[in-house]
Design brief:
heterodimer; A: alpha/beta; B: alpha/beta; Nucleotidyltransferase, domain 5; 39 helices; 44% helix; disordered C terminus
Chain lengths: 449, 1019
């Protein structure tokens, strides 16, 4: 096997000094771009459906993996447990498990697929997912499958895949569309009279928006009009005349490590569970995380004098992103049926006095800020999700609960760990405790005979 | 209204009108079911029974029991408890969360309560009522509950009731870790071996549960006022009540143990139910539960272990072939060889004939005193043997090897791994993989070219070992054999997790909820144990990686369900010798034979008569560690000291071993000598907590602050007691021990009366230009943020806690960052002062690193000149802390290694291309050190890994891969709050054994024994 691997690995052939056979780096070349299918793991199902099509527009043949996202996570988790070091964090296990499960499913010509994974390059172990994936591929016998790192920090370059500015621009719209759907679905699901209506509508929209991403030109004025059309369509869903802005249901915020916060695969369908318990889930969007990453580069310069040029560019990006978020918020506000997300410009001031802006590994200060943002919005129940043993969350999640509770004694904060071995029943039991305290009077139970 | 008097007040019941509605509360916990009937503000009926996993039938039974009593009244019912959720949904009965239910009960019945502590089978809960209601439950990783107490009783070989009685007569409390049964066992076993009174151990267990609950759940919030104690364990165990009262310093008036403690949740459910809108009749309620008992299985499950009885019979027949002939002692005369395996919990003996038949064997718990057992057994053997059988050689292996060897003059000692290898070869000379699952540990080794190639042991966590199945079987009311049998033919084995016992317990709970049978659970557990061993401990991706010729052994494999699960999981047949539990002893006997002695030195029957053994607990004063040691004295005045962590305690004189270079010790001594160089220059007293990154940068900060005119004090070396002192303020229990001990260091500094404490936030560590970036891990980088938010004592003491974000790699930025943080404090600083201090600090740090490297290179040179083995004991800088490193450095030195650190060879080691993202300073050193080990025959690398260090999941694999690519053995040692040094010794001795074996030293010794056996092997 080692000889085969070496032939296929450009870097190893070049350095020519390594005897290693446990991992290999197959480069995604220009030629592969034409004939290979790029598989993308799912974190946020609707967002990613839209984003994947941005890549399609630029000539990449992409496919979004949905293995395990519909409550059928067993194969994915088993593959993850088998091929990933079990002490690695749960998201690594799931993402890699998803890839391996897909490759083993027989759906693909494995000699014609590449895998794409994001890489932040931060000080959290998550930036090593790619290395873990490559090792897993060798162990599973797919050492010939190329892996593409999607990163904004120049960690790995790849001749067959280039992230360009226009592409980032389109991705931004995709993210904002996704965030809008997220907000609207969550504010409709608990109240809709016809169950499943909001989700069906959001699915319809994500299909439509995904197609829109492949249009030859995207005008911002059109995007804004589309925002309004989306909002109107959700406002039209019958909620029995209730005002969603005053939120008659118990609102429960979800913050946490990005993967388990967003992915139904990672958090055992947490949003669905909350809705089934009659609560309204409240989540900040993916744009907040992007803005957090951008902010960190600016802070790095302010604190340490590192990356002056980079900071300048990121300041421009920051302004641009903030403005786009603001536009979306204004449109939601103007329509008037829904609570708009908090502007990030405000969110990022909130962690002050709790945790320093220099704490930038994992979700860093953003996680603390998001808990405070929720409290700020009047959401008094917050679930902090994390993979079991998540390093940054020891500090910015669990470590900040005491100071927050001291300041806001009325708030319910609960930390839930996710892991292949943690059972849903234990997680749900703790959430039920939170809900029991959040709802002052006993609810009329759905199943009472 | 009081419920303390007569809970089943039948009289009150009769006086109630037959139309008064009744409320029924049902609480299904992990092990018990409780039901109460509550009527017109009175508790009229209650019961509390184990459900043995039969959740739904049990509930039905309880309901049928109260049917008569309730009669035709309208009924409102609610279910609570973690295992009741599924049934509630399926039977259409409202569910109420159990902590919430408890809160309701207490608010209604004892409104002046300020806090509630409730212990259940697997949960611990604290509810605060006064000053902001707050309800807390233990996290996913937490011991110290009823299940833990059960486990400990098993370990002490007493019932839970006996444990309680014993505890009441205690005179002394020992520190015991209660976070997890594994850790506790590590603490308790030596106490048992030292002959500590069970009374004291029992009380210590309770004390540890109390302190764990209080520290873990209250997290700094004071539990005071009127405290109510609820739940089964606190209802039944008087000793546990006492422990809580003592720990919280409560008098009888403030510690309330109500009569309804064990049914409080059910009562809360009833109270909750009584407020519901709709009522039903008793018949309707029963019909609902009855229907739920008939519900089909929904738990995820796997295929059965055996489809048909014939398959099982065939399986049994196949395995019975892997047997050793045995011969009755009275039918044998001639030479014999004695093998003893003195394990941590059991002692095994084998007397083997010249032809390899078993003449006599013994397997049992060592009940805390293996010496006594071996003595009894030897006497028995001599009696049976008479003059016909002559012992020609003896050998001992296992944890108690040294003790037994000294006590009985056994001819040889053998490291466990070699003993097992020798035995496995007897059954299959081509063996290439051995897996041994015992009661508490899992060992496996790969064999390559007739030598042990790599060894894997379960480390700090003993999840999925044999005792786990046993404990579970007992908790469900079965003996382990019976439990295993039920699993063999189970139709739908449940899918359980592969992690820790606590996790598995909850998986079982979930399965119970879903209606799985005992057999399904038994089979599921067997599969879990196997999966845990394969994927967690051995960590293989596919069965092929294990090998072709696999021998499995250890007591756990005597369980056919486990054996079958293993074969199913790896997809082919393996050999399980019938003497699976005796393999260590059998291997020792084979080795004894291979010694080819003329006569064995083992004590004769006459000598045995006058044999005496006394053991005395003592404290070693060889160093500041002050280990608990045991001094064993034998009849002839011979002494043997055990429990020592290094050569000093063993009574060996200072001499050669003192000369062996040990960079861990060198660094430690040099760091703590810093303090002496600081004098007060008028700025006040500044404290540096000696934990985490401070072990790297103390020379830098010490110099900077001394230059600035501070008296710099260090918190000191870590101690267990220091950890306990800060434990109350730890918000995340799953963080690594080096981080959690930080809390104790802060407390220590406050006690020293410092004006300020300094531990900066360093996203970026020192850039040594050997990696793509130079991060710290998130915990090292930002732990100060957590300390600030969680340690009230900092504010209470008025200490200025300084934790600026700094860039230490760019002097100008460094100065401006530090200036910003300090300029207005302590009387103000000029920038020029800061500048001078920083420049001096950087120089001091550079000198320090240069010195460490010089010392490291000198150590290597010295060792090479003497032909000694060199060990890079690699990890993190803070692993040199004696409390965190547990003296493993001294242990390695005592085994004849020159010990260096990964940073001390930084000057000579260069990493090649690394196949992971290489952007952490400490990690980059590890990779370079591993490469260095590959390039030098006389250098071994042993990696220390802190339990819970997620980031090391990446480095361990990479370091292993680098070493293996260079043909080196990889040895990893997981360390935590408690570390079993016995296991570490086995690791290191196995490493030496494997190195020696590879050199062929032992090959000749074994050749005589193994060749003949190859011909005789029955398989």
């Amino acid at each position: 096997m080692s000889a085969d691997v070496k032939n296929k690995c450009v870097e190893c052939a070049e350095c020519n000094e390594c005897e290693r056979t446990d991992t290999c780096n197959v480069v995604f070349t220009e030629e592969m771009r034409k004939t290979y299918k790029i598989l993308i793991p799912t974190m946020l199902p609707r967002h990613f459906k839209i984003l994947a099509n941005v890549f399609s527009y630029y000539g990449y043949n992409t496919e979004l993996l949905e293995d395990g996202t519909h409550g059928d996570s067993k194969t994915v988790i088993d593959a993850g447990l088998k091929y990933v070091h079990n002490d690695s964090c749960y998201p690594a296990l799931l993402v890699i498990g998803q890839f391996i499960a897909a490759l083993q499913s027989g759906r693909y010509d494995t000699h014609k697929v590449a895998l794409m994974l994001t890489q932040t390059g931060g000080g959290c172990r998550a930036s090593n997912y790619i290395s873990l994936l490559r090792k897993a591929l060798v162990r599973a016998g797919f050492e010939y499958v190329p892996v593409i790192s999607l990163n904004f920090s120049g960690l790995e370059s790849c001749p067959g895949f280039k992230l360009t500015l226009p592409m980032i621009h389109r991705l931004l719209y995709g993210i904002l569309y996704g965030d809008l759907l997220l907000t609207l679905v969550n504010q409709t699901r608990p109240y809709e009279l016809e169950k499943g209506r909001a989700e069906a509508l959001a699915d319809e929209w994500s299909e439509r928006l995904a197609r829109e991403m492949t249009a030859s030109r995207i005008r911002y004025s059109e995007v804004k009009k589309t925002y309004r059309r989306i909002i109107d369509s959700f406002a039209a869903i019958d909620v029995g005349g209730r005002d969603r802005r005053t939120a008659p249901a118990v609102r429960v915020g979800i913050v946490g490590e990005i993967f388990v916060k967003f992915s139904p695969l990672g958090n055992n369908q947490l949003e669905d569970f909350l809705v089934s318990e009659g609560a309204e889930p409240v989540l900040s969007g993916l744009i907040d995380f992007c803005l957090y990453v951008v902010t960190n580069s600016i802070v790095d310069y302010e604190l340490y004098g590192i990356g002056k040029m980079k900071a300048k560019i990121y300041k421009i990006a920051d302004k641009f992103f903030l403005r786009k978020q603001k536009d979306l918020i204004d449109i939601i506000d103007k329509e008037g049926s829904f609570n708009p997300p908090t502007p990030f410009a405000h969110t990022r001031t909130l962690a002050r006095g709790y945790v320093g802006m220099g704490a930038k590994m994992g979700e860093g200060w953003l996680l603390t800020a998001e808990m405070l943002e929720l409290i700020d919005e009047g959401v008094n129940n917050v679930i902090c999700t994390q993979p079991f043993g998540c390093l940054p969350n020891h500090i910015v999640g669990k470590g900040m609960m005491k100071p927050i509770k001291e300041r806001y004694p009325h708030v319910n904060l609960v930390a839930i760990d996710y892991d292949a071995g943690a059972t849903k029943i234990n997680q749900e039991n703790r959430i039920k405790l939170m809900l029991a305290n959040a709802i002052p009077t006993p609810p009329c139970h759905h199943g009472t005979r | 209204m009081s419920l303390n008097g007569t809970p089943n007040a039948a009289d009150g019941w009769k006086s109630l009108d037959a139309t008064v509605p009744a409320a029924i509360g049902i609480d299904i916990g992990s092990t018990t079911a409780k039901l109460v009937v509550y009527c017109d503000g009175q508790l009229v009926y209650s019961c509390y029974e184990r459900h043995f996993s039969q959740v739904r039938p049990k509930t039905l039974e309880l309901l049928l029991r109260v049917r008569e009593l309730v009669g035709d009244r309208p009924v409102r019912a609610a279910i609570s408890g973690s295992a009741g959720l599924g049934m509630a949904n399926s039977a259409g009965i409202p569910f109420v969360q159990e902590v919430f239910a408890t809160g309701e009960t207490v608010k209604r019945l004892e409104p002046d309560t300020s806090a509630v502590i409730e212990l259940g089978g697997e949960d611990a809960k604290v509810i605060f009522f006064k000053g902001g209601m707050d309800e807390r439950m233990n996290g996913t990783c937490a011991g110290g509950t009823g299940a833990f107490i059960d486990q400990m009783a098993t370990l002490l070989d007493v019932t839970v009731e006996e444990l309680d009685r014993l505890s009441l007569n205690a005179t002394k409390i020992y520190p015991i870790a209660s976070r997890c049964g594994v850790f506790a066992k590590t603490d308790i076993q030596p106490l048992l071996n030292q002959g500590a009174a069970k009374e004291n151990i029992a009380a210590s267990i309770y004390a540890s549960v109390a302190s764990q609950t209080i520290a873990g759940l209250a997290q700094g919030r004071k539990i005071e006022g009127k405290v109510m104690f609820l739940g089964g364990p606190l209802y039944f165990c008087q000793g546990l009540r006492k422990a809580f009262k003592d720990a919280l310093k409560l008098d009888d008036e403030h510690a309330i143990f109500p009569e309804y403690a064990r049914i409080s949740v059910a009562l809360g459910a009833a109270i909750y139910a009584s407020a519901l809108d709709s009522a039903v009749t008793m018949d309707e309620l029963i019909a609902g539960v009855e229907a739920s008992t008939r519900e089909r299985l929904v738990a995820s499950h796997t295929e059965p272990l055996f489809e048909r009885e014939e398959d099982y019979r065939e399986f049994c027949a196949r395995h019975s072939r892997a047997s050793v002939k045995s011969v009755y002692p009275k039918d044998y005369s001639g030479n014999a060889y004695l093998g003893i395996d003195c394990g941590s919990t059991t002692t095994k003996l084998v007397l083997m004939s010249e032809d390899g038949e078993i003449v006599y064997s013994y397997y049992d718990s060592n009940r805390g005193n293996p010496v006594n057992i071996v003595k009894e057994q030897l006497r028995e053997i001599y009696e049976l043997c008479g003059n016909r059988i002559k012992i020609m050689g003896s050998c001992v292996t296992g944890y108690g090897e040294e003790l037994i060897r000294h006590a009985f003059h056994i001819d040889a000692g053998l490291v466990e791994t070699m003993a097992h290898f020798t035995a496995a070869k007897y059954f299959n000379p081509r063996v290439d993989f051995i897996l041994d699952i015992g009661g508490q540990d899992i060992k496996c080794f790969k064999i390559k070219d007739d030598a042990i190639d790599s060894i894997m042991l379960n480390e700090a966590c003993s999840s999925g070992c044999g005792s786990f199945i046993e404990t579970f079987a007992r908790s469900m009311g079965y003996e382990v054999d019976e439990f295993a049998k039920l699993g063999l033919m189970a139709k739908a084995p449940v899918e359980l997790g592969t992690r820790c016992t606590v996790f598995m317990n909850s998986s079982v709970k979930q399965a119970q909820k879903d209606g799985a049978t005992v057999g399904d659970i038994s089979a599921g557990l067997s599969r879990s144990v196997v999966k845990n061993a394969i994927y967690k401990v051995i960590r293989v991706a596919s069965a092929e990686e294990l090998g072709e010729e696999i021998v499995v052994q250890g007591g756990t494999f005597l369980n056919d369900a486990v054996l079958r699960s293993f074969e199913m999981e790896i997809g082919h047949e393996v050999i399980r010798p019938q003497i699976a539990g005796l393999m260590g002893a059998f291997g020792a006997a084979l080795y004894a034979k291979g010694l080819c002695l003329d006569k064995s030195a083992v004590l004769t029957a006459d000598e045995l008569k006058s044999f005496t053994h006394e053991s005395r607990a003592a404290r070693c004063h060889g160093c500041t560690n002050k280990c608990n040691i045991t001094v064993n004295t034998f009849a002839n005045g011979e002494k043997y000291i055990s429990g020592n962590k290094c050569e000093k305690g063993a009574g060996i004189k200072k001499g050669d071993t003192e000369l062996i270079p040990n960079l861990h010790k060198y660094k430690r001594d040099a760091l703590f000598a810093l303090e002496e160089r600081s004098a007060d220059g008028g700025r006040g007293k500044l404290g540096l907590p000696m934990a985490l990154g401070m072990y790297e940068l103390a020379p830098l900060w010490h110099e900077i602050f001394t230059s600035l005119g501070f008296e710099v004090v260090l918190s000191g070396e870590s101690r267990r007691s220091m950890y306990t002192k800060g434990q109350y303020s730890i918000p995340s229990d799953t963080a690594c021990y080096p981080a959690k001990i930080m809390h104790g260091h802060i407390e220590a500094l406050i006690e020293k009366g410092v004006d300020a404490i300094f531990y900066p936030c360093l996203t970026y560590n020192v850039d040594e230009h050997i990696s793509d970036n130079h991060y710290n891990c998130p915990v090292v980088a930002y732990y100060s943020e957590l300390l600030r938010g969680n340690m009230e004592s900092i504010g209470d003491a008025g200490v200025d806690f300084l934790y600026p974000y700094l860039n230490i790699n760019d002097e100008r930025q460094f100065v401006s960052g530090l200036y910003k943080a300090l300029k207005d404090k302590f009387g103000g600083f000029k920038k020029s002062e800061i500048k001078r201090a920083v420049s001096r600090g950087l120089k001091a740090y550079a000198d320090w690193m240069a010195d460490i490297r010089r010392e490291g290179e000198a150590a290597i040179k010295w060792a090479r000149a003497k032909g000694m083995k060199i060990m890079i004991l690699a990890g993190r800088p803070y692993h040199v802390d004696p409390e965190i490193g547990h003296g493993i450095d001294r242990l390695a030195a005592s085994l004849g290694f020159a010990v260096v650190t990964e940073d001390s060879i930084g000057g000579i080691a260069k990493a090649k291309k690394v196949h992971v993202l290489n952007q952490w300073t400490y990690h980059a050193r590890l990779y370079a050190a591993a490469q260095y080990a590959c390039e030098h025959d006389d250098v071994q690398l042993v990696q220390l890994v802190s339990f819970g260090c997620g980031i090391d999941a990446v480095t361990t694999d990479e370091v292993r891969a680098i070493l293996e690519s260079g043909g080196k053995l990889y040895t990893q040692i997981k360390i935590d709050e408690i570390t079993n040094l016995g296991a570490v010794t086995i690791r290191l001795r196995s490493l030496i054994g494997a190195l020696d074996y590879a050199k062929g030293k032992q090959k000749t010794a074994l050749a005589g024994a193994s060749e003949r056996e190859r011909e005789e092997a029955t398989v």
